[in-house]
Design goal:
The protein is an alpha/beta fold. The chain has eight helices and eight strands. Strands 5-6-4-3-7-8 form a six-stranded parallel β-sheet, sandwiched between helices. Strands 1-2 form a two-stranded antiparallel ribbon. The longest helix is centred in the middle third of the chain and has 24 residues. The protein is globular and about 55 Å long.
């Protein structure tokens, strides 16, 4: 049964509880330009609409009980775009910080930057660092903003820092490398969502996403709203993550988990 309620003067459809909620969802927010082109609008209109949509998705993430969300805002490869578009994307990030920071803080969102601040204007870099510092004690949702980020670049920098630390080659393990990644204190993403119909990671969280479930949709990012996110989470809940194990092993683990949960209740 569909239940419609009103929140802040808007009609909102009440969605059934999720069977299984991922802890960490990462999103490749793709399709802003194509969204604009389909409407005979400039690409800048698509980027601005995509930014407005991010606000809605952050609220939905909190509503659905996600603990961590990582968004791909600007890749190291995006520097090759026309200079005018790059400058626009930089201005949009600055505008979002100025306009949204207090509300995000009030909602308990902790902002983290993953990537490098090299090549970004000193003013914007300062605002990014101040936003992270201002919200660092918030715990309701960790929002990783991958800005000037590339997965291969992250791995290269991790290896360079391991070498600088003087760690012997035979002592380097997966755990060692993980401890030098931007997300070293966070669990890997359970689910990676990509909008606009593309089916590749595009250099996004390629270390952390080794065992992530992938969900793609034809929907362009500006149109990927609350209910679209909910559908992705429902799809995730229907999947069985094996991590190299057999179905029988996974069934036994689920049964044991359910038994422990029942005892706790």
């Amino acid at each position: 049964m569909t239940i419609i309620t009103r929140q802040n003067g808007r009609e909102v459809r009440v969605l059934p509880p999720l069977a299984r909620t991922p802890e960490h969802v990462a999103i490749i927010m793709d399709g802003n330009g194509r969204w604009a082109r389909a409407r005979a609008l400039p690409r800048s209109a698509g980027h601005r609409q995509g930014t407005d949509n991010l606000r809605r998705i952050i609220r939905a993430a909190v509503e659905f009980g996600l603990r961590i969300m990582t968004i791909y805002a600007f890749s190291t490869e995006n520097w090759s775009r026309p200079r005018r578009e790059v400058l626009l994307l930089m201005r949009i990030l600055e505008m979002v910080i100025d306009r949204e920071l207090q509300e995000l803080h009030d909602e308990g969102v902790q902002i983290r930057h993953i990537g490098e601040l090299e090549g970004i204007s000193a003013r914007l870099a300062q605002k990014v660092m101040e936003a992270c510092e201002y919200t660092r004690h918030n715990q309701r949702l960790i929002l990783n903003v991958a800005f000037n980020y590339g997965g291969r670049d992250e791995i290269v920098r991790a290896v360079q820092n391991i070498v600088r630390a003087g760690i012997a080659a035979d002592d380097i393990t997966e755990s060692t490398i993980n401890s030098y990644m931007y997300t070293s204190d966070l669990p890997d993403p359970d689910l990676i969502i990509r909008t606009s119909g593309e089916s590749r990671l595009s250099n996004f969280l390629i270390w952390q996403g080794a065992y992530s479930e992938i969900y793609t949709t034809e929907t362009y990012w500006p149109d990927f709203g609350r209910e679209a996110l909910y559908e992705a989470l429902v799809e995730y809940g229907s999947r069985r993550r094996r991590f190299g194990k057999t179905d029988d092993q996974i069934k036994a683990e689920y049964a044991q988990r359910d038994h422990l949960r029942e005892r706790a209740i």
